[in-house]
Design a protein that fits this description.
With 708 residues, the chain is α+β, with helices and mostly antiparallel strands. It has 22 helices and eight strands. The protein has a four-stranded antiparallel β-sheet with strand order 2-3-1-4. Strands 6-7-5-8 form a four-stranded antiparallel β-sheet, with helices on both faces.
Length: 708
């Protein structure tokens, strides 16, 4: 493997490697794969639905009855003091204008529906969607242009399931560009601070950008073979490529600088760096990829699609850092580090000395109290999990003012709140439709049930709920409605619609969390066992990552409530947070323990642990800061779920970097000694050094982390 890893840094091979990468990107660009990647993303409801859920089957049945998937576009007019004659004339005028537009895929707006209190009226039409965003975005935009800001005390907002969908699609369609620009800018700034060189920072940055473009191009091909991709999974993939790719670059470059101080030949230095750091990078990337692929077991389509897409991004980032980056290092050489050029024999930046070594020696004096107190600190931080709430819904998931949400609030003051998005009921036996309608109408929380269509699958009924269709109260009604409908019309009756979809997604997310988390733990444990050739150390590392995850989510839950004032979290947040924190957090333990094992074979476990911490401390800290920063960029997006996800992972990475990897793990290893390698031979044989030597002379640590 080491011989293969050294190939890209060869005198001739380096040019071949660069030419291959440039050629691939030219071909991808000529075929417009990066642009097509945006076009194949599906942001409609079906792209997120659990495939086997009843609401999914109901959606299919409603499509057959209506001809296509339909969403309602609802315009709410309201005057708190009561609508005047002039207001009603204005509403009729708007209705005539809207119908004159003959909006594509949109039924004519029916006569206004007045409220009982005389304060509001509704104009309602249906949009038939073919899965393309424009079929919803264009009609909603034109309706808003006509009815916007009537003035004179009359309020008007466009909402309905079409309004909510349009607002969500607009946000998702703007995610990738905003996110990519912000993330690349942040990586640029952090690399400038880390390397303090106006030239060198462009080398890892260029490699990461190449990896990002290649990932998006291959992602298009994934979509073509049937993988569900939406803007949410696409944005997370971009973060993974930028964050993980930069981490791998930092690890390789740190080793390259070590080699430049020992060898005058830049090709030899680059080859040795790739050979030495490559196995740890591969082990790390494979661990993350396997953990992400576990997501394919999820019921929720969006979650399942993220698995192969995220694994693709990490895999491409790994290949780029092990091929293109060594080639670029071999081409540019040591002068690229100007003005801080590493020279042969330069010991001023010997990472085996300095502050990380001193920290390891302090831990080594009393390791047991250190790891016990550190574990207790993390346990206290985990108490915040008691404050974790799943109150985030589609209706309150936006940050800032959104017209569809404002319209829903206006509607709820004068109509049953569920008027905005009725619950669909499909009765296969037409003779039982009336009985089902009567039975469901008697369910507490249901305002009324009306016919909505008929076709080959059966009769479609629309149940209007008294509560906000996107509130947890309404989600709780769905099981009662289903039980009542099936009792009156048979077990083949289907209940769907926006409320049922949200309820089924929440149930599926909970199921996915319970299923996938244990599988991810098992996969990561097996990888660590193979990598470290031991059992005790991998189990301990897994336990520390679990504790880190609990502490991260606990701190985040408090922050969501107390600092940000968010209404709650999505039920899928723990799963996403766990997968990313375990997969990415274990990266740093792999970087650390792979080096510790290498040093242990030469110096013994105690001294090997301290040397391993000393030589990896700077680069891992830098990598943690970069990864936390890139995930924090998700907080710039106007969706609460992505903001919460970015915050939780950023906090988790920092906890793992500065507490778990730098203190907890070293303390446990120093306390257990060679027993940590059980049952390998290292745990039973005499070690090269049974006692820690006297502390070596301090030399100021000038590893990249010292500059951050």
């Amino acid at each position: 493997m080491k011989r293969i890893l050294a190939i890209p840094a060869g005198r001739r091979a380096k040019w071949v490697v660069v030419a291959i990468w440039v050629g691939l990107l030219v071909v991808f660009s000529a075929l417009q794969f990066p642009t097509k990647f945006e076009d194949v993303q599906k942001n409609d409801s079906a792209s997120f639905l659990p495939a086997s859920a009843e609401s999914t089957k109901a959606l299919t049945a409603v499509k057959l009855i209506q001809g296509k998937e339909t969403v309602s576009i609802v315009t709410v007019y309201r005057r708190p003091s009561g609508l005047t004659a002039a207001d009603r004339a204005r509403i009729e005028q708007n209705r005539a204008e809207l119908n004159a537009l003959r909006l594509p895929n949109t039924t004519p707006f029916a006569k206004p529906i007045p409220s009982k209190n005389g304060q509001a009226e509704l104009l309602v039409a249906n949009i038939t969607s073919d899965g393309e965003a424009e079929t919803i975005l264009d009609p909603v935009a034109k309706v808003r242009e006509v009815v916007n800001d009537p003035g004179g005390g009359l309020e008007a907002k466009v909402t309905g399931s079409a309004g909510f969908a349009a607002d969500a699609i607009k946000i998702f369609e703007g995610i990738n560009g905003t996110l990519l620009f912000a993330a690349v800018t942040l990586v640029f700034v952090l690399l400038a601070l880390i390397y303090r060189s106006p030239l060198f920072l462009w080398i890892p940055l260029l490699t990461v950008v190449f990896a990002e473009l290649a990932s998006r191009s291959i992602g298009y091909l994934l979509a073509e073979v049937g993988v569900t991709i939406n803007a949410q999974s696409s944005s997370i993939m971009s973060i993974l490529v930028l964050g993980a790719g930069t981490d791998y670059a930092l690890l390789l470059v740190a080793r390259y600088r070590e080699e430049l101080r020992q060898h005058d030949d830049k090709h030899l230095a680059a080859a040795n760096a790739a050979s030495a750091a490559g196995p740890a990078i591969i082990a790390s990337a494979v661990t993350v990829m396997l953990a992400l692929l576990c997501l394919t077991l999820a019921e929720v389509n969006g979650t399942a699609g993220l698995g192969p897409l995220g694994a693709l991004g990490v895999g491409v980032a790994m290949v780029a850092m092990l091929t293109l980056l060594p080639a670029l290092l071999a081409i540019t050489g040591r002068r690229a580090f100007w003005p801080f050029i590493p020279r042969v024999g330069d010991e001023g930046a010997d990472a085996a000395h300095g502050k990380w070594r001193r920290w390891g020696e302090r831990i080594g004096r009393r390791p047991r109290p250190v790891w016990i107190l550190t574990a207790l600190l993390l346990a206290v931080m985990s108490i915040g999990l008691l404050n974790f709430s799943t109150g985030l819904t589609q209706g309150n998931s936006f940050r800032g003012e959104v017209e569809s949400v404002q319209g829903q609030e206006m509607l709820a003051t004068s109509f049953p709140a569920g008027e905005n998005a009725p619950t669909d009921i499909v009765v296969p036996d037409k003779s039982k439709a009336k009985a089902v309608a009567a039975a469901v109408a008697s369910v507490p929380g249901v305002a009324r049930v009306t016919p909505a269509g008929a076709g080959p699958p059966g009769v479609q009924l629309a149940a209007t709920l008294k509560y906000n269709p996107y509130a947890t109260e309404s989600y709780g009604l769905i099981p009662k409605i289903r039980a009542t409908a099936k009792s009156a019309g048979g077990q083949n009756v289907l209940v769907g619609g926006p409320t049922a979809i949200e309820r089924d997604m929440r149930e599926a997310s909970t199921r996915d969390t319970k299923l996938i988390i244990p599988i991810v733990l098992l996969v990561v444990l097996l990888v660590l066992i193979v990598l470290l050739r031991a059992f005790a150390a991998p189990v301990l590392l897994i336990l520390t990552v679990i504790l880190s995850f609990a502490a991260s989510l606990g701190v985040s839950a408090i922050a969501y409530d107390v600092i940000f004032g968010f209404p709650g979290s999505d039920p899928g947040l723990p799963l996403f947070t766990f997968v990313f924190l375990v997969a990415l957090g274990i990266d740093y333990n792999i970087f650390l323990m792979a080096r510790v094992r290498e040093e242990t074979l030469r110096y013994g476990t105690e001294r090997g642990m301290i040397r391993g911490l000393a030589v990896t401390g700077g680069v891992i800290t830098s990598a943690g800061i970069v990864l936390a920063g890139t995930f924090a960029i998700l907080g710039t997006l106007p969706l609460i779920f992505l903001t919460e996800l970015g915050f939780a992972i950023a906090i988790g990475v920092l906890i793992d970097t500065f507490i778990v990897r730098s203190t907890l793990v070293p303390a446990i290893v120093l306390d257990l000694g060679k027993r940590v390698w059980w049952p390998s031979r290292v745990a039973h044989e005499g070690e090269p050094g049974e006692h820690m030597p006297e502390a070596e002379p301090d030399v100021e640590d000038e590893t990249p982390a010292a500059t951050t």
